Amino acid sequence: MPFFHVGKARWLINLGSALFCRFERFGELGDIENAILVNQQAVDLTPDHNAAKAGWLSNLGIAFQERFKRLGKLEDLENAVLVLQKAVDLNPDGHVVKATVLANLGVAFEKRFEHLGPLGDIENAILVKQQAVDMTPDGHADKAVFLVNLGSAFESRFGCLGKPGDIMEATVAYKQATEHTSSHPFNRYNAARCWATLCSKHQSPSSALDAYTAVLEIIPQVVWLGHRLNRRYEELPGIGKIINAAVAMAISVGDLPRAVEWLEEGRSIVWKQILQLRTPSDELHQQHPDIADELLRVSLALDNAGTSSFQNIDSEVKHKSVEEEAQNHHKLAAKYEELLQQVRKLDGFSSFLRPKKFSELSSVARSGPVVIVIVAPRCDALVMCTSGEIDLVPLPTFSLEQAKTLHLKMLSSLQAHGVRVSCDGVVMHSAEEANQDHFISVLADLWSHVVQPILSEIEQVLYENAHHSLPHITWCATGELAFLPLHAAGIYMSDNWDMNISDFAVSSYTTTLTAMLGSGSKPKRDPTVVHNVLIVSQPATPGQQCLPNVMNEVEAIQRYTSPDHTCHLTHESATVEVVLGEMSKHEIIHLACHGIQNMQNPLSSAFLLYDGGLELNTLMRLSLENTELAVLSACETATGDKDIPEEALHLAAGMLAVGYPNVIATMWSIGDTDAPLIADKVYANLLGCRGNSESQKAKLTPAYALHEAVKHLRKEVGEMNFVRWVPFIHFGV
């Protein structure tokens, strides 16, 4: 193209924008180098009187700042200030982009102040950022961004001069940005997060609580029902940390009920959205059938729209464009929120589908204490007792960094044992080949710093709930602790002297307190009624390693089930469609097959059946009733995603959401010979030898059945063989 072509500058700018976007996506240094090059060419080609030049200079300035972040060369920062200053000078007052250019210049000034320290830079940063705010109308979507930028500059100046007035100015800016409803929810959330963090450091606890309250109110808009599931999960990383900080602040002021409420609001956000769409309300239907029917219709449509994948869309709607599908999803979400507001205006329904208050959540501890362990800058346990009270157990010797270290040590130990810890990991080898030291220290640290201090504080509570058998504890862990085996914590020294949690209690886990409420609402089953059991086995899944002991596992289960009430699907009969169709007909499902945790796309985590994967994404579209137990005798069914631990994004959580109140799952790959033994002992305790005493009934719940089965496995393989017996865990009540 001729150098003097009139449109060349514009095409160069388009190329520069594409290169910049690709740099943001993939981080290739060559892309930002070329973006600067072509943007500079476009600027050089454009005379100052051209109205577009100011905007192109702004693009160039931003590109210089991005390269400075990568390489740290002060020359790039100087160039950013120069070109952005020129962009401001060329932009007439009242121009649509002048506020944005001013804000970008302010960021460059602040960044140069942080690295070189001239006070004039931070003064100029505040000046131009204030100008950007002042010239932006109140209804403009970018105003929250400009206010947050201004608050950051005031914070930076406070760090230099220590003037309390700057903290007040920053607080006002963040608060105004948070309350600016015309701005994008994510920008408002970012403002609220900055406001809360600032108040936690420099202002009163009551101010911090106000800010954290705003954070919690905005999160549902960030992780919006109108977005598809993958988009919602993309928004979640980082939210867990701010939730834990909010909970820690509530604990520090002694507001334990609020701490529980906030923790529950911030956990498994997307799971709760899905369950909320399926929540029946007989009372609403009886009093207001028309709006109840409409809400049900929209909920079902929104549930299907949010959890379907392109491959599963019905053939008659496949022709819809992505844009049409997204628009329809947004309309459904807006209609759903409109209907919710209408319902909440009806007498007696003001709290309909709102986050649960502590008065509702306190009933989860009916079968034993529920222990919530918060891992944040401050570590504590909140113990919800059967009395409805909360006990606070500080954990001063534990920390967020320690939890991360223990998680890494455990992963290292598993890999040393040849245990698969991801969907593309290595195959399990015999446990005798590896050293046990890491596991011993991990379990000992969990005992000394987390579990033992909690047990000591709640000794009386446990005694009151023993009822002639071991008491039951349900763990609800946060952060990195969600990946660690609290149920196996202990000191394992020798046969003559050791101490571990299984000596004192039977352990279960829960993803949320709300999940326990749903499970507890199901009527107790008559123990004399025969269970309908669905067994799905895949000893030779196409494309996968053979599982030679799967048929032994099936035979072990069938020793305790009635042939008339058992359906066994195996080999080519165990297809995704057939299994989905049978799940609603049986109270118990046992899956003996390969399972994978897809770290790149967690919603594609799956049980591997004859014709493909029964994916988490597909399970999320089910809503089953009259279910009792899912046994997931497959690899890594409770592994989760390390980036969003609070979301419990694993197959076990999927089965809980589908409607199973009890799930037996595995934390990592299990030994092929261990699965039949566990199955035999679980079903023997669950379905065989039923007595009439209350203590015997308690032992026949899934949690107690698994506890007894794992105890037997420990004797068989040796207590120090942790990789063999630790992975088996129970979710539920």
From TrEMBL:
Lineage per the UniProt record: Eukaryota, Fungi, Dikarya, Basidiomycota, Agaricomycotina
Pfam families hit by this protein: CHAT
InterPro entries (alphabetical): CHAT_dom, TPR-like_helical_dom_sf
Protein's UniProt name: CHAT domain-containing protein
Domain CHAT positions: 443-732
Domain of life: Eukaryota
